[in-house]
Design a protein that fits this description.
heterodimer; A: mainly alpha; two-stranded antiparallel ribbon; 13 helices; 1% strand; globular; B: alpha+beta; Alpha-Beta Plaits; three-stranded antiparallel β-sheet; two-stranded antiparallel sheet; 6 helices; 25% helix; elongated; disordered C terminus
Chain lengths: 405, 182
């Protein structure tokens, strides 16, 4: 296949992916409101349906109405802002969030279509915009760090103290949690021997042991860090309404605001899909996905499994939001540096020690099981030790001085 | 207030148990609570589609009505006690010589501004002849402010609409009409 066809195939993939992500973000806003309502014993938005028909459809028209509202809102720019940076910030945030999906697979592969992309293996069309990127994980990390530029630019250019404080908090939080995030996947990458995301999924599919079982400690560290990176509750300090009004997007409204909001939801989607791919086996499910993709059924089952798992993680994200109060900022920092970082190190050390002796021929079934047992035991011990040491306890409350008693 | 003030009651923070230190058990507990509420029965009333259930309509404070006696005359004797008691000054009464022999005055004009009313029920408390009462009507709408000033005919028609579902309170207390008849 010549490079023109290859280019067209990539364009189609991008169009499908971006269209899907935008729709998903819009409907996840609705889902978020539904779950918020249901958790609080309310019914949630259920009125807006198809326009002009009177059909309610359980409120499925709500995203359309919300979108229209944002489009028709006045594009208000305060006089005291730096116009260029103010406009650039939401674009950077959303652009970085969308670009990260270039290396994230959204399925395994499509069967023979008659067209064979130059860059695909075995004439299958791989369901990933940029297949075979050897530094896939690094690319995702680089872009997720770029996203914080959007936040900082937004907070700085707004020329508003709340915006600035939100941006400061955001940058501190991102820097602190990049480390556990990296440590969380380092064990996975070390075991797989590749930074390619499709490789990591394929490894879990081959062995049948998802990384959440093989490396539970890494899973916990990664999930907590992913929550913090996506700035979701209980780590949403950059935009906590009670203290900072809206944080870095205090001064934003209309289309610029919706770009920020979509960007944030995109972070959550990225985090969910990454958790699924790296730890929950991606498109793999025991008994349903054995062997390579041979027909359309195989291809669609894998897409559905991947999307289903990611959806479950998204629902978990939203439930967590209503289950825990926000951390204090010092607790947030202590959690990153005193708990998650050491736990990630422990996991990395265990994997590094076990990697060579156990996986010289890692496709053998037994060694994986032993590896899992050792890791679960280490995770339990590390967790209990952390619990007993109580690194998060910072009792700085006023108390009666002894000599006054 | 100084730190050694004897009035300060010092409370020590309770020590965390093992479950609290481990965090995960409490994590699961919190998640279970939210998940349970996720599927539990909802308390929202979808208002125009379904009516809210009013616990006891006899003590609900909704739209006013002017009661009639058994001869279908307005019970009000235009004593102005309700207008005096009203904290929102929403009751406007014009008294006139009564055409009936058993009372001296009756309201020639009686209007309540339902937009100004705060539905406190003081008029009901003040009325010596139980002529003014609050019903359980709560969805009150109108297209203009003038429309929301309920005059005597309107208030009497509210009585006609609600007399069966919400009997007059004085009747249930054993007195068929006010003091004026005795």
């Amino acid at each position: 296949m010549d490079s023109t066809t290859s280019f067209l195939v990539a364009l189609v993939k991008i169009a499908v992916l971006v269209g899907f992500l935008m729709t998903a973000a819009a409907y996840l806003v609705l889902l978020e409101r539904w779950i918020a309502a249901w958790v609080q014993d309310r019914k949630g938005p259920n009125r807006v349906g198809l326009p002009l028909t009177g059909l309610r459809l359980f409120g499925l028209g709500q995203p359309l109405a919300d979108g229209l509202k944002f489009v028709f809102k006045e594009e208000f720019v305060p006089k005291h802002v730096d116009w260029w940076l103010y406009t650039l910030a939401p674009v950077v945030l959303l652009g970085a969030a969308l670009a990260a999906f270039a290396v994230i697979p959204f399925g395994d592969a499509l069967p023979e279509l008659g067209i064979t992309a130059v860059d695909s293996v075995d004439s299958y069309l791989q369901l990933i915009v940029a297949p075979q990127v050897d530094v896939g994980m690094l690319y995702v990390f680089a872009l997720s760090s770029m996203a914080v530029y959007g936040v900082i630019l937004g907070g700085w250019s707004s020329n508003n103290k709340y915006g600035y404080l939100g941006a400061l908090r955001s940058s501190a939080q991102m820097i602190a949690y990049e480390l556990p995030l990296g440590l969380g996947i380092l064990g996975v990458v070390l075991m797989t021997g590749s930074l390619q995301i499709d490789e990591i999924v394929a490894h879990q599919a081959t062995t049948g042991y998802w990384n959440v079982f093989a490396q539970p400690l890494a899973f916990v560290v990664f999930v907590v860090a992913a929550f913090a990176e996506a700035a979701r509750l209980p780590f949403d300090l950059p935009e906590c309404e009670q203290e900072l009004i809206g944080g870095y997007h205090t001064e934003y409204s209309g289309m610029r605001l919706i770009l920020f909001l979509i960007g944030e939801f995109m972070h959550m989607i990225t985090a969910s899909v990454l958790i699924t791919l790296l730890f929950l086996g991606g498109w793999h499910f025991w008994g349903l996905t054995s062997g390579p993709v041979e027909n359309w059924f195989d291809a669609i089952v894998r897409i559905v499994i991947l999307l289903g798992k990611s959806f479950a993680v998204v629902v978990f994200f939203m439930l967590v939001r209503w289950s825990w109060p926000r951390f204090r900022f010092d607790q947030l920092m202590s959690l990153a540096w005193k708990v998650m970082l050491p736990l990630g190190m422990v996991n990395l050390a265990v994997v590094a020690v076990l990697r060579e002796p156990m996986f010289a021929n890692y496709l053998g079934g037994g060694s994986m099981f032993v590896f899992m047992l050792i890791n679960v035991a280490v995770a339990a011990v590390a967790w209990i030790v952390t619990a007993l040491l109580q690194p998060l306890a910072a009792d700085n409350r006023p108390r009666r001085a002894e000599n006054l008693a | 207030m100084k730190a050694d003030d004897p009035d300060i009651h010092w409370v020590e923070e309770p020590k965390l148990g093992l479950a609290g230190k481990m965090y995960l058990p409490l994590f699961v507990q919190g998640l279970t609570t939210t998940a349970r509420h996720l599927v539990s029965r909802k308390v929202t009333v979808s208002f125009p589609d379904e009516r809210p259930k009013i616990g006891n309509p006899l003590i609900y404070r909704g739209v006013h009505r002017l009661n009639k006696d058994e001869q279908d005359r307005v019970k009000c004797v235009a004593c102005f006690l309700c207008a005096t008691a009203c904290p929102a000054h929403c009751i406007d009464i014009v008294a006139a010589e009564s055409p009936w022999p058993d009372r001296e005055k009756y309201p020639a004009h009686f209007a309540i501004d339902e937009l100004r009313c705060i539905y406190c029920g003081m008029c009901e408390e003040a009325c010596p002849v139980d002529a003014i009462e609050l019903t359980s009507f709560c969805d009150l709408t109108g297209r203009s402010r003038e429309e929301m000033v309920f005059d005597k005919e309107k208030l009497l028609s509210v009585y006609d609409q609600t007399k069966d579902s919400e009997p007059m309170r004085s009747a249930s207390m054993g007195a068929s009409s006010g003091r004026a008849t005795t």
